Structure formats: C-alpha cells, structure tokens
Amino acid sequence: MLGYVLAATLQSMAPHDRLPLLRADATQKACAASLSVVQSMVEAVDTPLIFSGWDGAKTSEISNSIYNWSPTQYAKGNGTASPSRSMMSEFKNRDYTRYSAVVNCLSVRTFLKNRRVRFGKVEVTKAIDAKDQDVMIVDVSLAALYSTGQHALVTRGQFGTFGQGGGWVLALVRDRSGHWQEAHVAPTWMS
User: Fold this and answer.
1) How many Å separate Cα 99 from the centre of its chain?
2) How would you write the pLDDT of the chain (191 residues) with one tens digit per residue?
3) Burial of 69 (0-12, 13-18, 19+ CB in 10 A)
4) Eight-class DSSP state of 149
C-alpha cells in the first residue's frame, strides 16, 4: 500500500489547466470547489503541508460504496442532507476526482505559491528522501460537480513521509453567497 501511495504521489506534475474531457468553464468551476478545500486545509492545519501533484490515481475515484457520511458544523447548522444515491451515481459517472487539483488548477497553484506552501513532485520527493516527520503530504482532487452546480465532491488524502495516513471524500455545497462549504465527510482509506 505504501509503495502505491508514494508512486501515485510522485507522478509528474504537468502545467496544464484544462482537461481534454472538460469544458473550460466546467474546469474553472471544479477548480473553484477544489480551491475551497485547499484554502480551508492551509488555514486550519498547524502541520506544514506539501500538496502533491498526482494525476490519474485510482485511489481517489468515487466508488459504488455506500459512504458513512458525517455532517460538518455547516451541515448541522443549515440542515444540509448528505448526498443521495442518485447524486452519487451522477458523481460517479462524471468522476473527475481521479485528477489532481494542483496539476489542473492554476488558481490552486497560485494560492499555494502566494501562501508559500510547498507543492509538486520535487517538494514531495525532498520530504520523503529527508524522512521529514514534521510534514504532511496532501492530495486534493479536482471536484466532481453535480448537474445543478450547487453540489460537488472532492477527495482528499494525506500521509506522512513514512506512509501513515488516510483518505476522505468531501461533499461540498454552495452557500447563499456562492461560496463552497464542506457539508459532509466520509473516510475512504486508512493506513
């Protein structure tokens, strides 16, 4: 498992911002949802983070599993329901979560540069080679958007340089002002 996770993390980071399977406007909307997850992680976590730049990792795809959703404070305060089975089917059919937000979103890379947060293959490799125990390596997927544009799924994985970590799927909703909010979270893997 550790080898697979590290191999997926070390895949090259290409400087593209448009996926051939998405329209440019859809990519921008997916990037906006993914950026909200990256921003909340950078603002909330005291541990130094390195955002990896994987693309095509099978571990981040939405599965047919029934997720054990937990509501966030936002969901509890706003009565937001967890994703329905039909919503999950649509997400699975539009599964862009196998693509990296770091690789595919200029907005994410710009935010990370401006906040002086390390990202990409070179930074991940440096941390692993140095066996830096003080960093957390993070993967954040490109969002899968629901047809209404009001819901999205993002996968997130994080692990230390020795491989211990976990993955989650996040259900996002747009609030009244149009900002993405994390509404529900479910675990996908642990090591």
Assistant:
1) 9
2) 443 344 343 333 334 444 544 567 788 999 999 999 999 999 998 889 999 987 655 545 566 567 899 999 999 999 999 998 888 877 766 667 788 999 999 999 999 999 999 999 899 999 999 988 889 999 999 999 988 889 999 999 999 888 789 989 999 999 999 999 999 999 988 88
3) middle
4) S
Tokens 């609030």, residue?
Answer: 175
* Widest distance between CA atoms in the chain: 46
Q: Mapping DSSP to helix (H, G, I), strand (E, B) and coil, where does residue 160 land?
A: coil
* CA–CA dist 88, 109 (Å, integer): 28
CA atoms within 13 A on the CB side of 89: 3
Give the strand pairing for 136-140 and 165-174.
unpaired
SS3 content of the chain, % helix, strand, coil (to 5): 35, 25, 40
How many Å apart are CA 71 and CA 83, to the nearest integer? 11
Q: How far apart are CA 43 and CA 33, in angstroms?
A: 16
pTM for the model: 0.83
Residue with tokens 């919503």: 87
Task: Give the residues across from 170 on adjacent strands.
Answer: 154, 185
- Residue 126: its H or E element: helix 121-129
